[in-house]
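Bench notes, afternoon.
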Amino acid sequence: MNRFLFHTAFKYRISRHLAFFTGLVLVFTLVLYSRSNGQQFFHFLNLTVANAIIFLGYGYLTIFVLIPYLLPERRFLIFSVSFLGLGLSLSFIKFWISDFIFYSSISPEFGGSQGLLNFRFLLVNTKDMSFVVALMVIAKFTKDWFLVESQHLALQKRYDELILKLQQSHFEPHFLFNTLNNLYALSLKNQDQTVDVVRKFKRVLQFLITNGQNEKVLLLSEVEMIGDYIAIEQIRYGSRLQVKTRVSGTCEGLLIAPFILFSLVENCFKHGSSTDAGNPWIELSLSCENRRICFETRNSVPKKSAPPNLYQEKELTKLKQRLEMVYPKKYSLTLKEDERQFAVTLKVDLT
């Protein structure tokens, strides 16, 4: 039914117009026949077909000519005069065709001795045709509104999907460059450790390529990828960076949008440890209970950073946008900071 009413394909458009024309003809034919004195049904059918052509012509000329060319330009007076003039002209033609039979059948007071060019006749007929035209205009623009609204919703959905994919595919280039530099330096010193780092680096990239465009990934797969990422990043810092991680609860089988947790971890390194020339530290905690997760990240901030959370809060803007699109009203993101640390608590209902 929706396809018949709203589809823009030629066959559906023709079918709609034919159905409307047929319905209009049958309604007026039955009205005339019910008020007649034994005249044949097909006599009135032929009469109403001729009249319906005039009615619909008035409607089509109004909808596809007068309205598109005059109303957008705010030429209201010209539109009104043109609309009335067109109605009177078509009424005149209509009376030549129908010879008063239509009105004499349903309204005897308009028939008989009154002349063909009686202006009262023309006005009454124009008024009646205007009513039909109004119904056609309402139907046309109601249908157009539904089409525009559905297209708007489809475009908005597509836009949100593109934004989401763009944000999901976000992966800082500095991580790739730093890893390659570290691998080069490590290969000169410890080839056995280099092989292990390359293996971890491969798993991180594989996760990015394989799961980056998926709507959901296994929570534990992202946790494993985060572990490889941390191991790779620690090559740069050596023993001066302390990273503590803790996972508790039942996390098996849970699905989450990719890179939600990773974005928080990456933020700790990018705007925490990398700017701290002293002894930076990072603490990560993930708890799962009843398909709800709580992920907490804490990282040290340089003493000279004031306030310490400006850059990190800015970096988390994209994450907030993703959470709004993927988990609307099902998450909370809390930021805390003081002179020595920046903390983020993310709670998500994965049900």
